[in-house]
Design brief:
single chain, about 120 residues, mainly beta, 7-stranded mixed sheet, about 50% strand
């Protein structure tokens, strides 16, 4: 049984930083595509960043240059370093694993999803 458990969310002022983590069990993080998505109340889920099995990363335009996705294969954990946070980054952030056909933030074709961690950025 695959489990993805996110952590690291919280409240921060604009311009601040947070680091999200996603611990995977029952799934080998290095073998497939993993990603981060987010959703705000009243909005559709939005892809943030993805990382493929070969380490290739892809980002939504709204976070390029501010967010960095990475993976630690030794402890089967996915990360999202978020810098220069803006109020519009406020959302529930979800970890996803095992994309079925495409490894890009614009594709939400993942088999497994975490429960989410809340990020709130105040101005």
């Amino acid at each position: 049984q695959v489990q993805l458990v996110e952590a690291g969310g919280g409240s921060v002022q604009a311009g601040g930083s947070l680091r999200l983590s996603c611990a995977a069990s029952g799934y080998i993080a290095s073998r497939g595509c993993m990603g981060w998505f987010r959703q705000s109340p009243g909005k559709e889920r939005e892809g943030v960043a993805t990382i493929g099995s070969g380490g290739i990363t892809s980002y939504a335009d709204s976070v390029k240059g501010r967010f960095t996705i990475s993976r630690d294969n030794s402890n089967n954990t996915l990360y999202l370093q978020m810098n220069s946070l803006k109020p519009e980054d406020t959302a529930m952030y979800y970890c996803a694993a095992d994309a079925t056909y495409a490894c890009y933030p614009s594709f939400s074709n993942f088999r497994y999803w975490g429960q989410g961690t809340q990020v709130t950025v105040s101005s």
